[in-house]
Design brief:
Elements: H1 2-23, E1 38-42, E2 47-49, E3 55-57, E4 65-71, H2 78-92, H3 95-98, E5 101-107, H4 115-124, E6 132-135, H5 139-148, E7 163-167, E8 172-175
Parallel strand pairs: 4-5, 5-6
Antiparallel strand pairs: 1-8, 2-3, 4-7, 7-8
Length: about 180
């Protein structure tokens, strides 16, 4: 029962983050008439570099619930909110739950977001690296990952659009 509750919380958080990203955050409440869209897309394995300059392979997360955020460190608006929300999720997980849940932040600005920059960004938010990786790589590899997760990355001056998604224990994209 506890595991089901944890997954529900993570799914609800992912939906909230994606909704905030997609619809913008305003002070005025808006009636929500959108219906939930469930997707089941297989996530292809990929390799990137984490905040410690260590190779990272998605296949090593098999059997875990994975919350994936796409953001960049110089983002002035939504990215800090997404990162702070993921930190709250991380803080709410027990030691045992952390073994089954992985948080990932994948950069959408590899020109700036080196491992050293990602480490500083993560530390600003108090991220703990036992179950949270901040990832970067070359543009070609990242473009394939963005496409696999359905992330449309486009330049907006300095930086790109952020997004968050959820992959289940079978590496299937669940919420989009």
């Amino acid at each position: 029962m506890r595991r089901c509750g944890l997954r529900s919380i993570i799914i609800l958080l992912a939906i909230a983050i994606v909704s905030a990203t997609a619809f913008g955050i305003t002070a005025e409440p808006r009636p929500m008439h959108a219906q939930r869209r469930v997707t089941r897309i297989q996530i292809n394995d990929f390799a990137l570099t984490d905040q410690n300059s260590t190779p990272f392979e998605f296949k090593n997360l098999a059997g875990k619930v994975v919350v994936v955020a796409f953001a960049y460190t110089t983002c002035p608006d939504v990215c800090p909110l997404i990162t702070a929300s993921l930190r709250q999720v991380q803080s709410g997980l027990t030691k045992e739950e952390r073994k089954h849940v992985r948080l990932m932040t994948v950069t959408t600005d590899p020109e700036i977001d080196s491992p050293k920059v990602l480490t500083a960004y993560a530390k600003r938010y108090g991220a703990e690296f036992d179950n949270w990786s901040f990832l970067t790589g070359n543009l070609t590899a990242l473009k394939k990952i963005w496409q696999n997760f359905g992330v449309g990355v486009e330049r907006k001056g300095r930086g790109l659009d952020p997004k968050a998604v959820l992959a289940d224990v079978r590496a299937m994209l669940r919420e989009h």
